[in-house]
Amino acid sequence: MIKKNAFAGIVRSATKIEPHELKATFLSFLFIFLLMFAYNILKPVRDAMAPDWSDVSVALLWTYNFFFSMAAVAIYGFAASRLRFRFLVPGVYTFFAISFVLFYVGASYASNADYIDKAFYVWISVFALFHVSVFWSLMSDLFTKVQAPRLFAFIASGASTGTIAGSAATVGLAKALGSMNLMLLAAIILVAIVPLIGVLQAMKTMQPGSPDTSRDPNATISGNPLSGFSEFVTNPYLFGIAIFIFLYTAVGSFAYFEIKNLLDGFDRDTNTQIWAGINLAVNAIAITTAMFATSRIATRFGLAKTLAVIPLLVGIGLLAIAGNPVLAAVIVIWVVMRSGNYAITRPAREMLYTVVDREARFKAKPVIDIVVYRGGDALAGWLFAVLATTLGLGLGALAAIGGFIALMWAFVGVYLGRNYDRLDPVETNA
Questions:
Q1: Predicted local confidence at residue 414, as pLDDT
Q2: CA 388 to the chain's CA centroid
Q3: Using H for helix, E for strand and C for coil, what is the string for 240-261?
């Protein structure tokens, strides 16, 4: 008991996790670790298919991805209105696991595997946002507004850890197992997650101070299947979150295209090394920051400042390099934005959902996380292309535009954080 209490004291001192929260927090960490491990097994399988297709084919697949994402969110909304809540989240991951098995069978026995490969390419792009969105919906349902600032960042560090582990495992397993067999491995991991979900949902009723201890787990979520689409537009708070995500995708697209264009003079092998180094730096910084710093930032400075800090740093950085967009400086901004998003901005953004009801968490949230995100990607990419190609703006001018967008992103973060502070948790689906 003394050793156990000593361990709990060390963890509390380093991470601000209370002793009674250890089990739920570490199980949640394991949950997102396994999710990202599975995704980073599947992502290289998807990306390895793209060189076989023309640029037009890939662009068309990206267009399909947006519409399939909308359809997937609508179907999910229908399921959320019909299924008992305790079956909803396990059902999502079981469904995706079955789909990967079917893709494996189709790719193995189809006479024309090209269509299967393209369908898989689009499906993984849908899964890429869906699995994380549903995970954080569950987290905002399990933990309270008081707990979220202390726990969400540590839980989020499991995503970066899983990304590194999944990528490393794929390097070693791709040739040993074969790329297609990795689909089966990912499916097994997703099925293994299902019991974890049941344990976490059962622990909800044991959370001290939980506002929801009497909720019937066999109840369904109220509202019609498409209410998520209408609610985020009519609810100013949810619409603000959507604008926040939209501006993030816009800044990210501008920074990505800046790096892409500045790397134009290097060969493919050098570009691969640079991007690999960037991804390693992003995830290493994100893990350390999320585990030991973000909870302190959120609890000491409040959510408004926590949401605004990374957008503000990125905005100032882009404006500073507008006059001389050097590759190294743009890469630093990219690393700050991506690692800061994983470690600080994303966990803080997910805290916003602890003060809304289940319908918003499980119906409106996927619309915002998936449809708005993908729409933002597409619109920002086209905007950059028009500004650079049609209007002939240089990288410096484009960096300045990206900087102003980032400052708007910071302003929306402050607005959301202040509204969050004024809101009490609400539950209308008990």
A1: 95
A2: 29
A3: HHHHHHHHHHHHHHHHHHHHHH
Specify the residue for token string 């918003």: 360
Per-residue exposure over 372-403, b if at least 16 CB sit within 10 Å of its own CB, e if not = bbbbbbbebbebbeebbeeeebebeebbbbbb
Higher pLDDT, 281 or 25: 25
In this predicted model, what pLDDT tens digit does every residue of 249-289 receive, in sequence order?
889 888 877 777 777 777 656 765 677 677 778 888 888 88
Q: What is the pLDDT of residues 360-392, one digit of tens each?
A: 888 888 888 888 888 887 787 778 778 877 887
The domains found in the chain, sorted by start residue, are: 19-422 (1.20.1250.20)
- Half-sphere exposure for 285 (CA within 13 Å, toward CB): 17
Q: Is 300 exposed, middle or buried (0-12, 13-18, 19+ CB in 10 A)?
A: exposed
Query: Among candidates 317, 333, 361, which has minimal Cα distance to 143?
Result: 361
